[in-house]
Fold this sequence. Notes:
Blueprint: H1 8-26, E1 29-30, E2 37-38, H2 40-44, H3 50-68, H4 73-91, H5 95-103, H6 105-121, H7 131-154
Antiparallel strand pairs: 1-2
Helix pairs in contact: 1-3, 1-6, 3-4, 3-6, 4-5, 4-6
Amino acid sequence: MPTTxxxxxxxxxALARLxxxxxxxxxxxxxxxxxxRIGFEPLIGLVPVLGDFAxxxxxxxxxxxxxxxxxxxxxxxxxxxxxxxxFFGGLVPVIGDAFDFAFxxxxxxxxxxxxxxxxxxxxxxxxxxxxxxxxxxxxxxxxLTALGVLVLGAV
Length: 155
């Protein structure tokens, strides 16, 4: 976690950068006559081993942005898991290349961070009026008043 608090503007800026990056990395090019999109990372991953390492380094950018935006360790752990799945899945010859086209770790990680930060960026609800405490206090005061009337009336 960063040592200084992350402002709302910094979190929104990180989301905007991640949206652009994940779109470029995983969804930049539409395959004609299909609804499927691919990005530059799976294309780079076609180069055996080196392409997968390059993709892992690219995915590290998303993790760095998550850290800068103040994501907790659970979210960063899920991101690392997605990066590892993408990396090791991509190492398998032929099948790994198809896996890279389908898994889209950067888009998954950007979505994880977006969901986390949307919760963080929600305004805090106003505290509700303490009706129960008010009613209890009125009840106690009423009981004490009634007791006082009974004691003073008996004297």
